[in-house]
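Quick one before lunch.
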Amino acid sequence: MSEPVTFFRKALLYWYKPDARPMPWKGESNPYLIWLSEIILQQTRVEQGWDYYLKFKNKYPTVFDLARVSQDELLKDWQGLGYYSRANNLHQAAKYIVEHYNGKFPDNYKDILALKGVGTYTAAAIASFAYQLPYAVVDGNVIRIWSRYEGVEIPTDTKDGKRRIQELAEQGLDRENPGIYNQAIMDFGATVCKPKNPFCKNCPLQINCKAFSMGKVEELPIKSKKIKRKKRYFNYLIIKKNTYLFLEKRNDKDIWKNLYQFPLIETREVVEDENINDFELKIKMLVNANYNLINKTSISIQKLTHRDIITRFFMIELSDDNYLANRYLKIEKEALKNFAFPKIIQNFIKDNGLYF
Ligand code: SF4
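Model of the iron/sulfur cluster complex:
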C-alpha cells in the first residue's frame, strides 16, 4: 500500500474528534436507528434532518412501529423532507424486515444492500457503524476528498473513475475501526475538504495532497456529463363546490408517488394568460360541467435534482360535481391538513389559504 494512503488514514483519524460535530445519531449502534438516520440524510442537510430523525425515533422506536403505520400517515410525517420515494422505500423495507427477518435488522452487507432504498453508501454506513464490518462509504464527500488528495483526473462519473475512487476508498479504510473511520471521512468532507472554499491552509492532509500541490483544488473532482435539466409544467385546479375541494393521489411511476395533489393538467409549456382560452377547453374536459374561473396565480417553481417543476394554480367554482366526484377524492377544505402534499402545493395552501 502506498505511503500517502497510510498517511491519509493516520492523519484523518488523528484529526477526528467525534464530539466536534455532535449529531443525535452519532455513536448509535442500533442498526434500525442508523438506517433511519441514513435514509433521512440522503439528499437532506444535517440541520434539516436532525428534527425529523428525532421525530421518527420517538414515534417509531422499532421497525415494528414503522412497518405498522399507514402509508398516508408516514408520508404526512415525512412532509417537508422531499424525495418522497425514500419514505415509500423505508416503509416497504420495514415491512420486509418484519416479515422475513422477524423484525431483526439484517447483520450482513449483502442483506442490508438488498433492502429497498438502500444503496452501496447506506449499506456500508450501516454495516460499519452497527456491526464494525469493513466497508468503506463512498459518497460525494468521499469522491471529492480522494479525487483531490490523489489528484484523480479521470472523470469520477465514468466507470474507470468510479473504480479508481472505490479502490482508494477501500485502501484507505481502517479495517480495525471502520465505523470511526467512515464517520471521520464524512465529517472531514463536510467541514474541511468542502466543495467550495476548502480549508486547505489548516488541512492535516495538505502535505501529501496532490490537488493542493498542483493548484487544482477547485478543478477536482472532474465530471464528464453535465446533467441536462428538464422542465415540466403542472397546472393545478383548485376546484370548489360549496365547502368541498377535490384531490387525487399520485400513483404513477413518477415523482411524488403516493402524495396527494389537486386535479392536474400537465402541459408542454407555461399556460400564458393570452392562451387561457385553449387551456379552458382542457379544464372543461376535466370537470365536465359548467364552471367559473375565479382566480389564477403566477408561476412558481420547485427545483428538483434534475428538473424544474413550473406550476400555476387555477381556482374554479363548479356548478355540478357529479362527474368529478366519481373520479376524485371529495374532501372538506378543513381536511386538507390530513394529507401529505408535494412542497409546491403545501406552500400554496399555506401562503394562499385557498381563499376564493
Ligand atoms: Fe482537501 Fe485542501 Fe486538504 Fe487537499 S489540502 S485534502 S484539497 S482540504
